[in-house]
């Protein structure tokens, strides 16, 4: 269900990554697998070709991704290749922020309280860029310009989302220096540029939550619970993102199009394809709903407050299943992230 503009954005970022790695004499190799189940065989073949002794990966948390990585680890270790995984997308390892009874949190305020305690004791450290290594007799693979089945977006949309780590860092620095103090007061007004516009870069792994946290702390004398209220509010948003990822791990049913709260499965949703199409095509006749949907269709992004408004309208007014909205968003958002999108809709 990934959006074509998201696939294009990731490919453009891969091109920048290939160039950055090339400067460090690190070739970027690209291999394809048609299904999740084929990943162990594809990576096993690569390891045999290059006499690889160990594989190091960053963790992903969807149910398919977790199963893939477990299968890859088992297959590689059977061939004598060690497998190492690392925390990357999050500040805290899933399973390490739990209730007193050892379960995953279901309430954000309680989850945040534990996260604050962890941050007080030790901040997640920034990871330095690796140094250049000795050149290898191995060339990088060309990064595809397009993936079959995903139409290239317009140049106008592409221009809104320049690729690369330098652009992500520029946005982060500009936000931390110029806008973060106004974040609490301006984030809920869609007509104002009150948000960081970093969500697509976070979803693609171009900037890390650790970089975001440290930039925010630097703007607030190292404080995350006191001081500048805009900074405190933005750090809370980083923790919301964290919370949704932990939910994905702790309650894997949400990866299977199931309700987070099982009792809501009994809701009698309307089968109203014409109303759904009107919502999707920005022709409900309600100005704020249609403007929000046009923003999504034209830019690949929607202001967070508007995401809440259109979701409320679809589910509470039209009584259409939230899964229809969740799927449509993922098919159009350049920052589409399973955990955050599912959490927002549920």
From TrEMBL:
<dbReference type="Pfam" id="PF00875">
    <property type="entry name" value="DNA_photolyase"/>
</dbReference>
<comment type="similarity">
    <text>Belongs to the DNA photolyase family.</text>
</comment>
<dbReference type="GO" id="GO:0071949">
    <property type="term" value="F:FAD binding"/>
</dbReference>
<dbReference type="InterPro" id="IPR036155">
    <property type="entry name" value="Crypto/Photolyase_N_sf"/>
</dbReference>
<dbReference type="InterPro" id="IPR018394">
    <property type="entry name" value="DNA_photolyase_1_CS_C"/>
</dbReference>
<dbReference type="GO" id="GO:0003677">
    <property type="term" value="F:DNA binding"/>
</dbReference>
<feature type="site" description="Electron transfer via tryptophanyl radical">
    <location>
        <position position="322"/>
    </location>
</feature>
<feature type="binding site">
    <location>
        <position position="234"/>
    </location>
    <ligand>
        <name>FAD</name>
    </ligand>
</feature>
<dbReference type="GO" id="GO:0003904">
    <property type="term" value="F:deoxyribodipyrimidine photo-lyase activity"/>
</dbReference>
<dbReference type="InterPro" id="IPR006050">
    <property type="entry name" value="DNA_photolyase_N"/>
</dbReference>
<dbReference type="GO" id="GO:0009416">
    <property type="term" value="P:response to light stimulus"/>
</dbReference>
<comment type="similarity">
    <text>Belongs to the DNA photolyase class-1 family.</text>
</comment>
<keyword id="KW-0456">Lyase</keyword>
<feature type="site" description="Electron transfer via tryptophanyl radical">
    <location>
        <position position="269"/>
    </location>
</feature>
<feature type="binding site">
    <location>
        <position position="183"/>
    </location>
    <ligand>
        <name>FAD</name>
    </ligand>
</feature>
<keyword id="KW-0274">FAD</keyword>
<dbReference type="GO" id="GO:0006139">
    <property type="term" value="P:nucleobase-containing compound metabolic process"/>
</dbReference>
<dbReference type="InterPro" id="IPR036134">
    <property type="entry name" value="Crypto/Photolyase_FAD-like_sf"/>
</dbReference>
<dbReference type="InterPro" id="IPR014729">
    <property type="entry name" value="Rossmann-like_a/b/a_fold"/>
</dbReference>
<dbReference type="Pfam" id="PF03441">
    <property type="entry name" value="FAD_binding_7"/>
</dbReference>
<feature type="site" description="Electron transfer via tryptophanyl radical">
    <location>
        <position position="345"/>
    </location>
</feature>
<dbReference type="InterPro" id="IPR002081">
    <property type="entry name" value="Cryptochrome/DNA_photolyase_1"/>
</dbReference>
<dbReference type="GO" id="GO:0006950">
    <property type="term" value="P:response to stress"/>
</dbReference>
<feature type="binding site">
    <location>
        <begin position="195"/>
        <end position="199"/>
    </location>
    <ligand>
        <name>FAD</name>
    </ligand>
</feature>
<protein>
    <submittedName>
        <fullName>DNA photolyase type I</fullName>
        <ecNumber>4.1.99.3</ecNumber>
    </submittedName>
</protein>
<keyword id="KW-0285">Flavoprotein</keyword>
<feature type="binding site">
    <location>
        <begin position="237"/>
        <end position="244"/>
    </location>
    <ligand>
        <name>FAD</name>
    </ligand>
</feature>
<feature type="binding site">
    <location>
        <begin position="335"/>
        <end position="337"/>
    </location>
    <ligand>
        <name>FAD</name>
    </ligand>
</feature>
<keyword id="KW-0157">Chromophore</keyword>
<dbReference type="InterPro" id="IPR005101">
    <property type="entry name" value="Cryptochr/Photolyase_FAD-bd"/>
</dbReference>
<feature type="domain" description="Photolyase/cryptochrome alpha/beta">
    <location>
        <begin position="1"/>
        <end position="91"/>
    </location>
</feature>
